[in-house]
Amino acid sequence: MIDGVLGRKLGMVQVFDPEGRMRGATVIEAGPCLITQIKTSDRDGYDAVQLGFGSAKRRNKPMRGHLKQQGDLRYLREFNVDEPSEHAIGERVGVEIFEPGDKVNVTGTSKGRGFAGVVKRYHFAGGPKTHGQSDRHRARGSIGAGNTPGRVFKGMRMAGHMGDEQVTVRRLEVLQSDPARGLLIVAGSVPGPKDGLLKIRYDANTLEVARTREPKQIEETPPPAGEEVTPTAEAEETAEAGEETTAAPEANADSAESAEDAPQASADNEEQPAEGQSSDDASPGESDEEPSQDTDNPVDDADSDDADSDESGEEKS
Questions:
Q1: Same domain as 108, residue 242
Q2: Do the Cβ atoms of 31 and 10 come closer than 8 Å?
Q3: 138 FRET partner, CA 20 to 30 A, in 118, 193, 244, 268?
Q4: Helix/strand/coil percent split, the chain, to 5
Q5: 193 and 109 in one domain?
Q6: Number of domains in the chain
Q7: Is the pLDDT of residue 291 over 50?
Q8: The pLDDT value given to residue 194
């Protein structure tokens, strides 16, 4: 496994740990890094991988030839690796190698302070402010003896260039690790300004524990509401395949429904009488239920026959 990644300092925040304590922390954009070169002990004398991070506006031809199809990477740094054969050029390495609770060593370049005096650079107290010492408030004082040794010892703390040097802060605790967004939150401060390059490596004790872990898969988080997402070609192909799969069951369901409707429609056609057919040819059940209104009452017919016979008798007489 690789013992670290490259990152970029984003700033500092305050977070609450599981115990409810508010702690100052630094947010680091750790990765994604690409493996640009693999070094082996047989060929190079030691095992390591070269990681590339960031994007550069332009690269010269030798660097473009070294990176090949990797792109114009801005930073290249080497990290120790256990088994170089397990990795390949172009492989992606990110913040997923860290977990909350790990101890890491963070290396960066401190902020440059220019030419500084001994009070700012080494926290000297300065000279007395009274008894006529009007110009010795921030002076360094004596730098050595006279005849013996008769010289200034090497490493004497004096005024000079301050900052802009490599600094490593050891055993910082990882509070949060977000592989989906590529963010790492560590307790405390790290050297360098915002957007400064950082080298995050496992502490020696944590590295032994990390070697026993299984590789963690990266989970993508949905984008915030209101943000448009451009689908990739693979996503479009997957969506088209899903539409075809869902279209087939729908077609089968439509055919089944049409098959069920066909017998019902034929039954309805049989119940309806054909055009030009009289109502007398209707089914017997309908004629029994609804008697015809034109049928005369038998009692009324008998009365009318008696009246006709009486009238005919009077005429004959």
A1: no
A2: no
A3: 193
A4: 30, 25, 45
A5: yes
A6: 2
A7: no
A8: 94
> Residue 303: phi, psi to the nearest 5?
-60, -40
Half-sphere exposure of 223 (CA within 13 A, CB side): 7
What SS3 state is found at 267?
Answer: helix
Residue 147 lies in a domain: no
Q: Is the separation of the CB atoms in 81 and 47 below 8 Å? A: yes
Same domain, 42 and 183: yes
What are phi and psi for residue 116, nearest 5 degrees? -120, 150
Phi then psi for residue 12, to 5 deg, are -120, 150
Q: Mark which of 177, 210, 243 sits at the end of a domain.
A: 210
pTM greater than the 0.70 cutoff: no
For the chain, the distance separating the N- and C-terminal CA atoms, rounded to the nearest angstrom, is 140
Which stretch, 67-76, 251-260, 307-316, has highest mean pLDDT? 67-76
Please check whether residue 105 is in contact with residue 172, taking contact to mean a CB–CB distance below 8 angstroms: yes
Cis peptide leading into residue 149 (ω within 30°): yes
Same domain, 115 and 196: yes
Question: Following CA atoms 70, 74, 80, 83 in sequence, which dihedral angle do they give, to the nearest 10 degrees?
Answer: -10
Q: What is the DSSP letter of 79?
A: E
DSSP character at residue 283: -
8-state DSSP, 81: B
- Can you read off the two tokens belonging to residue 170? 């050891």
The encoded tokens of residue 125 equal 């107290």
23: tokens are 């702690």
- What distance lies between CA 242 and its chain's CA centroid? 23
Boundaries of domain holding 20: 4-122+159-210
The token pair that represents 126 in the structure block: 């300065």
**Which of 170, 50, 43, 7 is closest to 103 using CA atoms?**
170
Does 110 lie in the same domain as 182? yes
